[in-house]
Write the C-alpha cells for this entry.
Amino acid sequence: MQPYTSISNSQVAVKLAIFDVDKTFVRGDSFKWFCWFAIRANGICCRKLGRFVLDTLMEPAGIFDAGRIKNLCLQLCLVTNDRSALTSLVRKFVDGVLLKRVHSVALDRLRWHKQQKHRIMFLSASPDLYLNVLGARLGVDGVLCTKVLTQDGRFTGELFSANCKGDEKRRRLMEECPGSDIAWDQSYGYGNSSDDVPFLGLFGNAVAVNPDAKLRKIAVQRSWAIEAWS
C-alpha cells in the first residue's frame, strides 16, 4: 500500500478545493467505521488489549491525546501487520463501506472542481491507512491527514505525525501550499466542525457543511456559505 502522493509546489498560483472528510465529505466518523470493520473481519489483538486499557485509564480524567488514542485503537483492531492482508482489508473497507457513505452532493462538488481544474485535496484527522486509498479511488490530487504508515506503506503501530486536527490542519496545509503559490481568495474549503475554522479561514470561499452549532454561528458571523449535504 503506497502512500498517496501529495501535491507538489508550483510557481503558478492555483485554486484549491480542500475537503474535510468525516461528517463533511462522508457521513459520520470513518475512523470508528474502520475500527469496527477490522474487528468484525479479524477480531481484536488480545496482546494489545491490556496496554490499551492501561494507557486510556492513565490519561487524566477528560483529557486525551487524540492522536495517541487513535493509534492505540489501530493497534488493537489490526491483528496482523502482514502487508498484503492489511492492503486487502483496507481496500474492502473503502470499496464496501466508505465509498457508500460519501455524500452525493460531495461527489457532485468534486466533479465540478475537477472541471474547473482546481487542485483538490482531502484534509483530515483520520489516518492515511485508508484515506490514501479513498483519495486514489476518487482521483484527488493529495491527502493531508494523520500519518500512521511508513514511507513504503507499512503499518508498524507507530504514529508518524501529529493528529491532523484543528490548528494542525492549517499548519499542514500552509506547509504543503506556500501562500505565494495559491490564489486563496479564489479557493474553496469545506468543513463541518468548529475544529475546521483555522483552515477554513484561509479561503475566499469557505463552506460550512452540515455544521455543528459553533461552526454555524461563526459561519453566519463571517458570511461563509452554509450548506446541507446528503
In short: The beta strands are 16-19, 119-127, 142-146, 188-191, 205-209, 225-227. The domain at 16-227 is CATH 3.40.50.1000 (Rossmann fold). The chain is about 45% helix and 15% strand. Residues 83-98 form the longest helix (16 residues).
